[in-house]
Write a structure and sequence with these properties.
This protein has 14 helices and ten strands.
Length: about 550
C-alpha cells in the first residue's frame, strides 16, 4: 500500500510552522518590545516637545465671533451687568451680610455716643429725702431756748429742685457740677406769719486719672478711644466687603455654570433627535431583515444614555436656578430669562494682562495688597495694639480728685418773711468746703506690665501676618496669571476647532448641491459647529469672570 503523499506533505508543513512559531515566541521573549515598561515622564526622545506654536487671539476675531452668535430673541446680559444687579440685592438676600451691616449700625451708634460725650450732658435732680420737689411735715417740736423749755406744733412746707451738668474730658477725666435750691416755709402754733428760708448750694467735682500714657495727663485720650472704635468698625466693613466679593463671585459663577448647562442640554436634545431618526430607520431595516437585533438594542441604549444625561443636566440646572433665585431675589427671573454672553470690552482688557502682564503690574500688587483682607486685618491689629498701649487702663491708674461745695447761710434773724429770706441770704459768711483726694494702687503697675507684654506679642504677630499676607498676594497674582494664560490658550484652540467645524459644514453644504450627502449629516455638522461655539463662549465667560475677580481684588470697598 502506497503512503498518502498529501497527508505526509501536510505533516511536514505543520512541523515547520510549529518550529517557526516556537522560534518567534522565544525571540519575542528575549527582545523587549518598543515602549515596554513605564515611560520616562520627564522628557520625550522624539523631540516633539521642543516644537512650540505661538497662538494669539485678536479682539477683532472675538468681536466677529460674538456678532455671529448674538441671539435675536431673549435679552442678552453680560456677567458684568449681572454683577451690578446682584450687588444691589445682596444686603436683602444674604442674611450673613445683613447681620454684619447691623453690626456696623451698632458700632456707628457707639461712635455717635463717643462724639456726643464731647458735649456736656444736663440733668434735673431732686432728692426725696434731702431736697424733695415738694414735702409737708407737721409735728411737735421742743424749744429748749425758752425758760422753761416748751413744746409747740410746727407745720413745714418744702419745695426743692436741682440742676446737674457732667462733662467728660478728653484726658479721660470727668467734671461734674450741680446747683440745688430748697425753699421752706414753717408756721409755729400760735404764730400768724410764716418763717421762710432759702437753701441754695453749688457743688463742683473733678476726677482725673494720671499717667495713663507717658505724660502726667493725656489730653488726647478721648481722640484715641474714638479712633479705636472707628478701627473696629472698619474691620467690620472689611468683613462685609470680603463677604460681598465672595457672594458676587459665587453668584456669577452660578450664572456661568447654568448657561453651560443650558448649552449642554441643547446639544443633548439635538443629538437625541438625530438618534431617534436613526432609530426609526433601523426599525424599518430590521423589519426587512437588513439589520440585527443587536444593532437595535445598541441604538436604544444610546438613546437611553443620552436621555439620562439630559435628565441629570436638568436636575443640576434646577438646583443652580434655585440658588440664583435666592441671591437675586426679585430680579432673579429677569436674570434667568436672559442669555449670558461675554462682554467684548472685558476681553479687550485681557490682551494687556495676558502673558506676564499681571505679574509685571506693580500697581496691581499695591492695590491687591491694600485691599487684601488678611493684610488689612494685620494692619488693623497693629494699629489697635499701638492704641491699646497708649490708652492703658484708666480704672487702674492713680486718680486725682478735687471737690468744692459752696452754700450761703443766714444770720440769727427769726420769723423771716418770703422777701426777707432772700435779702438776708448772704448776710452771714457762706459755708465753703474744698477737698483734694488721691487714689493709687500697685495694681496699675502690675496691670501695665502685663498689658505691655501682651501688646508686644500682638505687635509681633501682626507683623508676621502682614508678611504672610504679602507673600500670599504674590502667589495669588501668579495663580491669576496662570489661569488667564490657560484660558487664552484654550480660547485660541477653541476658535481653531470652531473654524475647522465651520469649514466642514461649508464643505457638506457644497456636497449637498451635488447630492453627495444627506440632511442628517448636515445637521450633524451644524451640531458639531454649535458645540465648538459653545465651548468658545464658555471660555470667554471664564475670562470675563476672571477679570471681574481681579477688579474685586483691586478695590473691595
Amino acid at each position: 500500500m502506497k503512503p498518502n503523499r498529501s497527508l505526509s506533505y501536510s505533516l511536514r508543513i505543520g512541523t515547520v510552522a510549529a518550529v517557526l512559531i516556537f522560534s518567534v515566541a522565544t525571540a519575542s521573549a528575549e527582545i523587549p518590545l518598543p515602549g515596554q515598561g513605564y515611560p520616562d515622564l520627564e522628557g520625550s526622545s522624539t523631540g516633539a516637545a521642543d516644537l512650540t506654536i505661538e497662538r494669539s487671539v485678536s479682539t477683532d476675531r472675538v468681536a466677529s465671533f460674538l456678532q455671529e452668535w448674538q441671539p435675536s430673541g431673549p435679552e442678552v446680559l453680560s456677567l458684568e451687568t449681572a454683577e451690578a444687579t446682584l450687588r444691589d440685592q445682596i444686603a436683602l438676600t444674604v442674611n450673613s451680610i445683613a447681620q454684619l451691616q447691623s453690626l456696623v449700625t451698632i458700632q456707628q451708634l457707639q461712635i455717635d455716643d463717643l462724639l456726643s460725650r464731647k458735649r456736656p450732658s444736663f440733668s434735673f435732680i431732686t432728692d426725696p429725702v434731702g431736697n424733695p420737689l415738694y414735702s409737708f411735715s407737721s409735728g411737735m417740736q421742743s424749744d429748749f431756748t425758752a425758760t422753761p423749755p416748751a413744746s409747740e406744733l410746727k407745720s413745714t412746707h418744702r419745695f426743692g429742685f436741682g440742676l446737674g451738668m457732667t462733662q467728660e474730658l478728653p484726658s479721660a477725666g470727668s467734671l461734674e457740677a450741680s446747683v440745688s435750691q430748697s425753699s421752706s416755709a414753717t408756721l409755729s402754733d400760735g404764730d400768724s406769719s410764716w418763717d421762710w428760708s432759702q437753701s441754695p448750694s453749688l457743688s463742683l467735682s473733678l476726677s482725673q486719672p494720671l499717667f495713663i500714657a507717658e505724660d502726667l495727663i493725656d489730653t488726647s485720650y478721648g481722640d484715641r478711644v474714638l479712633q479705636q472704635a472707628r478701627l473696629e468698625q472698619q474691620g467690620t466693613l472689611n468683613s462685609i466687603a470680603t463677604a460681598v466679593d465672595a457672594v458676587l463671585l459665587q453668584g456669577l459663577g452660578l450664572l456661568n455654570i447654568r448657561q453651560s448647562l443650558l448649552e449642554g442640554r441643547f446639544l443633548l436634545i439635538e443629538r437625541l433627535s438625530l438618534l431617534e431618526k436613526e432609530y426609526q430607520k433601523l426599525k424599518i431595516d430590521f423589519d426587512e431583515g437588513l439589520v440585527s437585533t443587536r444593532q437595535i438594542e445598541r441604538q436604544e441604549f444610546l438613546i437611553e444614555q443620552l436621555t439620562l444625561q439630559k435628565r441629570g443636566l436638568e436636575i443640576e440646572s434646577a438646583s443652580v436656578e434655585a440658588s440664583v433665585r435666592d441671591l437675586w431675589g426679585s430680579d432673579a427671573q429677569r436674570i434667568l430669562d436672559a442669555v449670558i454672553l461675554p462682554s467684548l470690552d472685558r476681553f479687550a482688557s485681557v490682551s494687556t494682562l495676558a502673558g506676564s502682564g499681571l505679574e509685571q503690574d506693580e500697581q496691581l500688587f499695591v492695590d491687591m495688597l491694600s485691599n487684601d483682607p488678611d493684610y488689612t486685618a494685620a494692619q488693623r491689629a497693629f494699629a489697635l495694639a499701638e492704641l491699646n498701649r497708649s490708652l492703658g487702663s484708666p480704672a487702674d491708674a492713680p486718680i486725682l480728685g478735687f471737690s468744692l461745695q459752696v452754700a450761703p447761710s443766714y444770720g440769727d434773724t427769726a420769723d423771716r418773711s418770703f422777701g426777707e429770706s432772700f435779702t438776708e441770704l448772704f448776710s452771714a459768711q457762706p459755708a465753703v468746703s474744698f477737698s483734694v483726694s488721691l487714689i493709687a494702687t500697685d495694681l496699675a503697675r502690675k496691670s501695665a506690665a502685663l498689658t505691655g507684654s501682651l501688646l508686644d506679642e500682638q505687635l509681633l504677630q501682626a507683623g508676621r501676618d502682614a508678611g504672610d499676607a504679602s507673600d500670599k498676594v504674590v502667589e495669588q497674582i501668579q495663580e491669576l496669571s496662570r489661569r488667564m494664560d490657560a484660558h487664552m490658550l484654550d480660547l485660541a484652540l477653541g476658535l481653531s476647532d470652531y473654524d475647522l467645524a465651520d469649514d466642514a459644514l461649508r464643505e457638506e453644504l457644497i456636497r449637498q448641491q451635488s447630492g453627495e450627502t444627506t440632511e442628517d449629516l448636515i445637521v450633524q455638522r451644524m451640531l458639531e459647529r454649535t458645540e465648538k461655539a459653545f465651548h468658545v463662549l464658555g471660555v470667554l465667560r471664564e475670562l470675563e469672570l476672571l477679570t471681574l475677580e481681579i477688579d474685586l481684588l483691586r478695590d473691595r470697598l
